[in-house]
Amino acid sequence: MSENEGRNNLRMPNDDEEFAVVTNMLGANRVKVRCADGTERTARIPGRMQKRIWIREDDVVLVDPWDWQDEKADVTWRYKKQEADQLREEGHIQ
Questions:
Q1: Does 16 have pLDDT greater than 60?
Q2: What is the similarity comment for this entry (predicted)?
């Protein structure tokens, strides 16, 4: 058995993205997230994700912080529970 058995290749953040954990559901397609850099941001769930991907509290997501307003961001990806556990094991998130 190889040490990478059972490991999935996961989507990693681009240069402008970072990991975040959903802390609160705000309604109107918005969530409160705690980013890896320690900043609390209000994140918007884009239309292409609204009906296809259900986001709940404590989910690990990728966010793209806005350039012009640091306290806001867009959700770009949601990790499943197994994928989030794998990211924690590999030390990418806490």
A1: yes
A2: Belongs to the eIF-1A family.
